Records
---
Amino acid sequence: MPKQNRVTPFGDLIAVPERGEMFGNRGILHDSGQRIVRYSQGRRWLVCRLEFHNRHRMIMRPGSYTELFFLDEATALAAGHRPCAECRRQEYNEFRRCWLAAHGELTGHPPSADWMDAELHRDRLLRPRVRNTYQDDIGALADGVFIVYGNEAWLLWRSALLRWTPGGYAERRLRPTRGSVMILTPRATARTVAAGYTPLVHPSAESLAASKPSIGER
């Protein structure tokens, strides 16, 4: 039976068979019966590699952080996570570099993990368990950002909008060039992506975005 440790772009934890391409955590979320009892613990929400130095973990071990799984990095960033500084050091440094390019007027130097975590925590939640979304023009958004369309999460990728599902991207629409949209990816992360950080996406995103538009696609 699947555990409730798969993360959606909304940041919700669901129980589905699909594991996804990325791993991460946001603290100890489960009890001794492996039931999810809290949404998060602390500000350090990470997205990690599935494999690192041949380490092996027992899923939801008592007293240890809850192992979370994401379809891809774009999903994790939308949920409010950031690259891990240990297992994804190169991506972490690139994220910091692009964060500095986007927010340099605030720090003047590459941000620390604590600085980014504090900013992301303010961005991702209005209050415990309640996501903070915001509006912007779709023409100002970079590839890799998630928006809400029809109460579902859609990824901006290439010239398309791609509908998220736990097992991959399942529907394509042409990406509008302008118009206000509701954005899931935290504002600080969306700015970092716009400054050059390119998140990893599930293979289905590349194949779907590269496919020919279907008749009547809009």
Note: The two ends are 38 Å apart (CA to CA).
---
Amino acid sequence: MDDDFNEVRLQKNPPAELSAPPKERARAGRMNVEYIPAFYGAFSEDTALAEMRPSIGDQVAIGEFALQKNLKVFDFPVFSKATGDKWKEVSEHTRYDFITQMEHEISKPILPFEKQREYIATQIVAEYLREYFECDAVIFRSSMHGGDKADNRNIVIFYKGAEFVGKERVLTLSKHHIANVMDVFYRTSVGKF
């Protein structure tokens, strides 16, 4: 939240304010090009906060959404959850290496100055999944939240010519609140020089 997006503005129309931005304000993202909106969400509040990269003292508006329509989803992390005989079947799939490599590319951290160049490949894959497989959404691991304590999956819902949140839309806003960021935690490892 900032001077332009404040609690008064949020309370006037929470579903619109917590949805994807309008076309004219949609910036390029991991799975969308500039001026093509996409709804980015997370499966846990911790993951959503990590993806937003807030600073201590920031206020963040957080919404919980309910799915209103069935979606055809490509779920990248599902391949790594297979166990036992299913794992052997999944890992022997002819496209397993491609899928795991693409999941790695989609989920790797990107520095702000690298976004334009680094997002090209993932934007192409998203468009391919949307166009040729008629996927409505893609689930992928968070690049900013890797712990086991919370569900670290994200979802992006592709634009289909209509708003994302509201009556008779893909999502409805169940509840929302404003959170004050009190602490930020980083986990490190020792690098080799």
Note: The CA atoms of residues 49 and 170 lie 22 Å apart.
---
Amino acid sequence: MTDVQNVIKNIQNIMRKDAGVDGDAQRLSQLVWILFLKIFDDREKSHELIDPSYKSPIPEELRWRSWASNPEGITGEELSQFIDKELFPKLKALSVRDENSPAGIVRNVFADSYNYMKNGTLIRQVINKINDINFNKKDDRHQFGDIYEGLLKDLQSAGNAGEFYTPRPLTKFLVEMVDPKLGETILDPACGTGGFLINALEHVRASGSVPTQEEENELQQSIRGVELKQMPHALAVTNFMLHDVENPTTIRHDDMLAAKALTEYGPSDRVDVVVANPPFGGVVADGVEKNFPAKYRTKATELLFLVLITHILKEGGRAGLVFPDGTLFGEGVSTEIKKHLLETCNLHTIVRLPQGVFNPYAGVNTNLLFFTKGEPTKDVWYYHMQLPEGMKQYTKGKPIKHNEFDVVREWWNRRVENEFAHKVSIEQIQERNFNLDFKNPNAPAAEEQLSSKELRKKVLESERVIQSLIEKL
């Protein structure tokens, strides 16, 4: 079996020698388009064995086997010129009849990709290392899949690229609680690198309901993802190929908020399950909010996604979402959107995550919202997760772990109020003008429990005191 981890380390070391590659994000972006072509070619070899009449959507001279697979092939300036003048321009302009075809996948992956490496000799060394991995070998593919997960996690240290990654213990727990099944359509409308959908795929497979290739094909066609940004879209497509999805044509490079007006999403767009971490803290492009009814118009991406998700869910459809504290206590348009959510869906559970789950890359406190469409909310259960004993905050070296969700799993199916859990009625929520930011009334008295709004007020008061002292000094 190939030592895939050692291969990747060698590739990263080679890339660090190239003057054109600056930082982890560019290294990963460079690695992804190279990997994509290698994985695509290995898959095509498998298709050709099954179907001798198979025709590649990639022109013959641009296929991996034609220019990259020979370790003694073109290198140096000749290789650089080929990539910059032939490979990229032609794949970006690939003729496509259907955006959701294999040709469409290839063109979309390359649409905004770049060849950052300038040294053709170093590029050849990277390519030769990639050729050591056979993605048609199950062991190689699965070993690389684990390493790829680590590469995605490393993106968190690459500035804005970190927004594409949600901690995997969190995605796994959320998918497990929503419990998608074979035959249901599953959507992530802002899928990033595909973590939630990969977990959904594996969850259904692990249920034992996918014994035949026919059912596997049905499952793969039921998983839908949309991603606005090119780099995470390419990462997601590659991620799906690594998880045995033959043609990840259901992962689209698009913007669901801007693509069309809310009312234009009709029956064919409805889905059974939504699992997502919609981008929060962002602002949509000018005019996008006009795709939504006037009372829901806002520039806040997370609020517009919440409106979209409640709209496209089928009656009886289920959702599990990551949302920031600001959404819970926000007012104005936020109040209207929460009112709409509670009137059209049963928001049955809010899991309040420990402070700093996304640290050190984002300090926003977050929650998991679980709801079912079709009946109004009567009560909302809250579970307040705690940091592990002895830990003051999560760090890059000590992130949240899978077993930390075990206490919530145990509580989930036999709900009782305890020092971490409590229930709030819809009347209590209405009395507070649909403010969902409830503190824990059952918390030990020794601990001061503040809601996010109260905590924010306290911080602002402290800042005013500090500023006053500075002015006096």
Note: The mean pLDDT is 87.
